[in-house]
Amino acid sequence: MSVEDENEEPLSPMARVFQSPGNNCCIITMIGCKTKINADVILRALKLNVSKHPRFSSKLSDDGACWIKTQVNVENHVFVPDIDQNKIGEDGEGYVEDYVSRLTMLPLDKSRPLWDMHILNIKTIDAEAVCVIRSHHSLGDGTSLMSLLIACTQKTSHRDIFPTSHVLKQRKREDKDKVPWFLRWVLAVFSLVRLICNTFVDSLLLLGTTLFLKDTKTPLKGDVGVENNQKRFCHRIVSLDDIKLIKEVMNMTINDVLLGVTQAALSRYLSSFPGKIRLTAGVFVNLRSDTGIQATTCMKPLAEMMATNSKCRWGNYFSFINFPIAIGLETDPLLYLSKAKSAMDRKKHSLQAPLAYSTTEFIFNTFSAKVGAILPKRHISNTTTFISNMIGPMEEINFLGHPIAYIAPSVYGHAHALTIHFLSYAEKMVISIGIDPTVIQNPYKVCDEMEDSLEAMKATLSERGLI
């Protein structure tokens, strides 16, 4: 076996999907900093550490099936444009959005590792400078990349302590000994039957959506070839405490609240659209056995983490579920919350997501990457949007002495004109919107509807004396 063969590692099935035409996706993350960014400090740190991480120091093989270890020239991956703040004035936000939008039309060089970093020392509404990190989606999913980011940072309040992330609490279960054995047996059978039925129906709907069920052509739905169009990104920061308050009062999860807010916002946006609307969102589901970000990985020093391949093995362990967006409900904003909770509770009692992932893996292994990529591409083109919610750091963090104000991730390269990402950071919830400006001319209106919907839900609860 040659040295090159020893340095090769096969791509996961989902990584192969993200390398296929029509699904050639990149993750783009805007990180706002509270101070100007010292590019020399960033470069020195990358030179010391990036070669220790297998994904960020590997390039694709010629056939796109394997990662090959290579030498990394950091200067080829870090860009620091010369910016004159006086010429731009107070429109720093517009400059950043234009810059990032242009990046979506510049493909990553496949002869080198598939990532780059852009340091924009320009003042915006929420930050003094912005660091834009772009990486190909085949390098890892959002949870993996967030784990790496947290491992590279420290708490702002205690720079010698690594940050922590939110841990998903398991719901309390009733004491089984208090329930008669016969009733437990009946409930178990009923639960199994419901699981099988839900999985069967959801799988049929997923297959139908992939083959022929298409969403209504609305001002949010992209046309054929939308994946090749230039994209634009904006974000909005809302209070995480407000979302938690609604969650507690309504006895639901944060995911339920965010999906309810999304339904309300898209309904408001499409309020003038005539006729009945079919609108489906793909909701990403983490299939890892660990929930959230792995704390054991996040607490390790960066050099140790990057040097330990077995502990930091990157793979795409997620799938998606079809989530029907209820458009045109009554004016009561709380109805959107109840609809979202009801739909999500049902989806949780279904094996559609792992079954979809296993099916994709089987098709890849049995046929080819080209055949395996057809089903995800058709599913995306027949739906309207993707919704993703990620758990971020619980406290404010800093990267090499640069305090971080916000983290706004998004993705481009797939056949949607609208993509919605949520990311919790300290006491904030960052809503990140990615759009095709030829379809959605005003992305800020989507952000406004998100913010207004959340406020309307909180106001309704207050009016009814629930908070």
From TrEMBL:
Mode of membrane association: Single-pass membrane protein
O-acyltransferase WSD1 C-terminal domain sequence ranges: 314-458
GO-annotated cellular components: endoplasmic reticulum membrane; plasma membrane
One Gene Ontology biological process: triglyceride biosynthetic process
Residues spanning the membrane: none
Highest taxon listed in the record's lineage: Eukaryota
Location, primary (coarse class): membrane
Domain O-acyltransferase WSD1-like N-terminal: 96-257
Keywords, ordered alphabetically: Acyltransferase, Endoplasmic reticulum, Transferase
Subcellular location(s) of the protein: Cell membrane; Endoplasmic reticulum membrane
Pfam families: WS_DGAT_C (PF06974), WS_DGAT_cat (PF03007)
Membership in a protein family: In the N-terminal section; belongs to the long-chain O-acyltransferase family.
UniProt-recorded name of the protein: Uncharacterized protein
Species assigned in the record: Arabidopsis lyrata subsp. lyrata (Lyre-leaved rock-cress)
